[in-house]
Amino acid sequence: MVTVKSLQARYSEYHQQQQFNQEPQHLYAPVNYILGLGGKRLRPVMLLMACNIFREEIDAALPAAFAVEIFHNFTLLHDDIMDDAPLRRGHQTVHTLYDVNTGILSGDVMLIYAYQYLGQVAYAQPQRLLEIFNAVAIGVCEGQQFDMDFENQSTVSIEAYINMIRLKTAVLLAGGMQMGALIGGASATEAQHIYDFGLNVGIAFQLQDDILDTFGDPAKFGKKVGGDIVQNKKTYLVLKALELADSATAAELNSLMNTPTTDEAAKIAMVKNLFNQLQVREAAEVVQNDYLQRAHAALDALNVTPDRLSNLRQLADQLMGREV
Amino acid sequence: MVTVKSLQARYSEYHQQQQFNQEPQHLYAPVNYILGLGGKRLRPVMLLMACNIFREEIDAALPAAFAVEIFHNFTLLHDDIMDDAPLRRGHQTVHTLYDVNTGILSGDVMLIYAYQYLGQVAYAQPQRLLEIFNAVAIGVCEGQQFDMDFENQSTVSIEAYINMIRLKTAVLLAGGMQMGALIGGASATEAQHIYDFGLNVGIAFQLQDDILDTFGDPAKFGKKVGGDIVQNKKTYLVLKALELADSATAAELNSLMNTPTTDEAAKIAMVKNLFNQLQVREAAEVVQNDYLQRAHAALDALNVTPDRLSNLRQLADQLMGREV
To answer: A318: how many CB neighbours lie within 10 A of its CB?
Structure first.
């Protein structure tokens, strides 16, 4: 069993070796730029962890891990254009540093390279990997569209919201881990349990992100605390609050979200106050914990010795406990 | 041997059956829209023709033909955003009818579906098809970047220009036909000859497009004649003119291209006049014909009865003779 630290180091080394130094430079410089910005690299590392459950030697899964990471960075690049975001991981976004056209085209070629790396994986059923990856990639686009649609909808059901984060965030983690498991020699059924683990962890992880964006410790949270409230994002907290509130309180929350204000701090405080009254943080944590339990249950179904799952279980718990 | 008309009809039928009616509608409506705009569908039909050289039954190649067509339409969609083009095939472009974000994301999902259809092809070596398709798709992005780079370069060599149109236009035709040949049962060597045919036809076809944009019959040419001149595009005609011109004439042409004017007709007439003096149309036709001959020579290398190649040879000649 390889330690998480070793997996991270092995992935980092491989990642850094993938340099796009070919011509035209204007196409590939932004690719090197965004891939060099760092980030947690959670998706490729969890893919390798899934592989490592079934096989000691994880090198065969490295191109798949990179495929997942370059795909993830492609989505960040195009999402940043759509949101006109100035910063990514504390640095200028690609379309800000270069321009929008460069961002579109360099993103496109990254998506293609994801398939190119996937094609490099030595695995007996390459069609199966392609199938999983296609389903993931389509899901992520659909999730992004649902997310954009929600901005213009007056009401969003919690069910629709969970489906959106499932597509936008969780399927990539899930499908990546499923591919890792298969490359490691898992049966289709075993790989499906790994997928279920990734899917439920992914949903729990996004719920955690919603909670931290409002209730996180500013010193520890990477982004600005309260950002979702300022942007009037329909997060799980908002949707749950609207569900639990009486009509007067719901009207108050809707009014806060629909009225432009220059006093961001006051707005954050007022919305947080409503959230506290309605105990939506606690409600979100119950649901989050439920998804985390489902993730662990998916691992319980595997017929492997518990020690092979300890890394994964520990990481899942760590992800949920992070920086609250 | 299937007639070209039958191949076109079979492809059209298949194309129209591929409807994207799933949710979210805002993601897929633009996909149906652009795929419904028509166009010559040259790439999928030539892929099927390549298949048909080696096998009577071409149905196995239909998903690959659609993959090539949906990929081509993805590039048109994103290129139209980059050029901020208002019209495509006489209709509003996707980003004009919807918005830029929709154009980016719907284009992305089309690129993914190209791979999804490719994955549907029943072929013994799916990895080989993926490899060819990846090389094509990367080439097309590189070609588009070179094309954008040329706008900001004061000088472009004819060699660099030919390389750009090879990547931007020809490799998709070539790689598509290579996949069609392989699916039809061609050997790797035979499929390479088909690739060479497609590549040379593609380059000749783009040179023809350059010629027609300036010298075409306005009644027959689909786009506005003189458009390249108005947009100061560095076409083969311009680059050849600059190569052949003495320094005074070259300065005159550069001045015409670098000076804004409101009298488009006068500008077109003056540039055309320079082209006529320098006989660049004739020079372009010599080169174009050379590529066409190379295309035919690639077919000569195939060990099949001449009748199996007649459709392809005829279409190539027709493409060059179109509407001058």
So the answer is: 10
